[in-house]
Design goal:
heterodimer; A: mainly alpha; two-stranded antiparallel sheet; flat; B: alpha/beta; 11-stranded mixed sheet
Chain lengths: 94, 486
């Protein structure tokens, strides 16, 4: 069972602000989801290889060549604050 | 015009019975008249659509058209479409315009389809009722007090109401098959790797797969021919020769072995749904197929495993929405950490936040082995169950959803109840197999029920053939809600 403190710690790791008033409801919901998940934990999986992907894949290699044109300006059009090709954020280093 | 199948529409366009501009105008008019009641579209752009229709007409006039040239379609609003808003049903991307086309979008545009709009969906494809959309819930055309299913609920509802003859969707845990079942349309999720994920906004990368909705299996085969194909820009796209998904449609079913997983016909299945599915299997038997009982012993673990793996991958994928590079940024914040926390709390809805938190937890230090690694191991057991089942059958049949469409609000306050909607679809995603749902009757309240067919890897053509042969003998897929008549 996740405690209040654990909920707040996870929220901090996930960079999500959780209002004080919402913690109890979230705690109940997340514990409900983890309760659903619980039956999976008891399964004996000794010797079973983890399945990381839907199908077995071998990593394709390509030539080490430039294939993408510079589209920085286009791609930055969807950003909240941009100046001179840079993403603007609050001052990090005083 | 809106009652015709894709092949009938293509024949009409080829014979110049009507132009793509007329056809597109007809569907745009239907959207204008009926979508107020459904909310199945987030964006409709008549100018862009009519321009594409004119280009398609010119191409048809030059004799260069293909089977999809001039056909209006809609894309689920998580396929990037250059110059169109691509919102993922989220406040986070409410005004975000895609700077490029997804591979599936590119391919369908090259085939000459006419994009009329982007369909509503559960936020970031997380949901089974379309109630988690920032743009409001979609309503089921058969009963607007009920949900259309999700997460591709907008696409399913739009096709069911004949606001568009076909639409794309994505299926991470059932998000094509469950809404297809609840809306009474046909929907296919192909084998993982058949449709490129390039330009599909990621939810859970090892499970996400693009697919389509249409009236019939034959329509699905035509759309699949247009959208599937190898793409080097998706590292999980499978490099295999192009195939004609319609090639086996006409073959009868004699000798086909249909696997019936005993775990699918249990007490969790509503009696009205069970009756329709059993009736559909009986029709397959009548046509010469042989039902075979099979077992998927780890079936009950599929939902628990999914709710570790999918949130884990989602928490990682959605970390890119940070208030810096895309979309929403909070108006007031202090330092950088505060900017992240506030922008994400405002930009994401409740269900997305829950899944990010669950995913963050199961991947966090000290819990990774107990949750994520264990889930990956059980995932292999689930996939192995299918491999064993396919040793004694050619295709698996069962329900797509445990019940008919439920009323709006009925499950939205209880995440776990909502998750169980995908009881019969999720294991297919975990294994990476193809699946489809086709209408197979009406259950309680006169609401549609879907038959799920599951195929072996890259065996879509056989699965579509079974569905097509079934549809030759039944007319469930031709039944329309009253809304589609006017």
């Amino acid at each position: 069972m996740l405690s209040r403190e654990e909920i707040l710690r996870i929220a901090q790791l996930a960079r999500l602000e959780v209002p004080e008033a919402g913690v109890a409801a979230l705690q109940q919901q997340l514990n409900g989801i983890l309760g659903l998940v619980e039956q999976m934990r008891a399964v004996d999986t000794a010797g079973v290889e983890p399945m990381a992907h839907a199908i077995d894949l071998t990593q394709r290699l390509r030539d080490d060549a430039v294939t993408e044109p510079d589209r920085r300006e286009l791609y930055q059009q969807g950003a909240p604050a941009v100046e001179d090709g840079l993403f603007l954020v609050p001052k990090v280093i005083e | 015009m809106h009652d015709k199948s894709l092949s009938a529409l293509a024949a009409g366009l080829a014979a110049r019975d009507f132009s793509s501009v007329e056809l597109t105008g007809h569907f745009l008019d239907r959207i204008a008249r009926h979508d107020g009641a459904l909310n199945s579209f987030i964006t409709v752009d008549a100018d862009k659509a009519l321009a594409a229709a004119r280009a398609a007409d010119a191409r048809l006039a030059r004799g260069e058209g293909g089977p999809l040239t001039g056909i209006p379609i809609a894309h689920k609003d998580l396929f990037c479409t250059k110059g169109w808003k691509t919102t993922c049903g989220s406040r986070m991307l409410a005004d975000w315009v895609a700077p490029y086309d997804a591979h599936a979008v590119e391919r369908l545009a090259a085939a000459g389809t006419v994009l009329v709009g982007k369909t509503n969906m559960d936020e970031f494809a997380m949901g089974s009722s379309n109630e988690s959309s920032h743009f409001g819930p979609v309503r089921n055309p058969w009963d607007t007090a009920r949900v259309p299913g999700g997460s591709s609920g907008g696409s399913a509802a739009a096709v069911a109401a004949r606001l568009v003859p076909a639409a794309t969707g994505t299926d991470t845990g059932g998000s094509i098959r469950q809404p297809a079942s609840l809306c009474g349309v046909s929907g296919i999720r192909p084998t993982y790797g058949a449709v490129s994920r390039y330009g599909m906004v990621a939810f859970a990368s090892s499970l996400d797969q693009g697919g389509a909705f249409g009236e019939s299996a034959e329509d699905l085969a035509l759309v699949m021919n247009g959208m599937a194909g190898f793409d080097p820009r998706d590292s999980t796209s499978v490099d295999r020769p192009a195939e004609d998904y319609a090639r086996d449609l006409a073959r009868p079913l004699a000798g086909l072995r249909v696997g019936l997983p005993k775990e699918y016909f249990s007490a969790d299945l509503a009696p009205d749904v069970a009756a329709c599915v059993v009736g559909a299997v009986e029709e397959l038997r009548r046509q010469g197929a042989t039902p075979v009982e099979v077992s998927l012993p780890n079936q009950a673990l599929a939902v628990p495993v999914y709710y570790v793996i999918a949130p884990a991958e989602a928490s990682s994928n959605l970390s890119r929405f940070d208030g810096v590079r895309y979309g929403h940024r909070a108006a007031d914040y202090g330092d950088l950490n505060d900017l992240y926390r506030k922008s994400r709390a405002e930009g994401f809805g409740a269900e997305v936040q829950r899944r990010i938190l669950v995913g963050t937890y199961v991947l966090s230090h000290g819990y990774y082995d107990a949750y994520y690694l264990q889930a990956q191991k059980v995932r292999r057991l689930i996939a192995a169950d299918f491999a064993t089942a396919f040793e004694s059958c050619d295709v698996i049949a069962g329900p797509a959803a445990p019940s008919v469409a439920f009323p709006l609000g009925e499950k939205s306050s209880d995440p776990v109840r909502m998750y169980l909607e995908d009881l019969y679809t999720i294991s297919v995603n975990l294994a990476g197999l193809p699946g489809l749902s086709v209408p197979c009757g009406f259950g309680d309240h006169g609401l549609p029920v879907g038959l799920q067919l599951i195929g072996n890897y890259f065996d879509e053509a056989r699965m579509l053939r079974v569905a097509h042969q079934y549809q030759l003998a039944t007319d469930w897929h031709r039944r329309r809600p009253a809304l589609a008549e006017g």
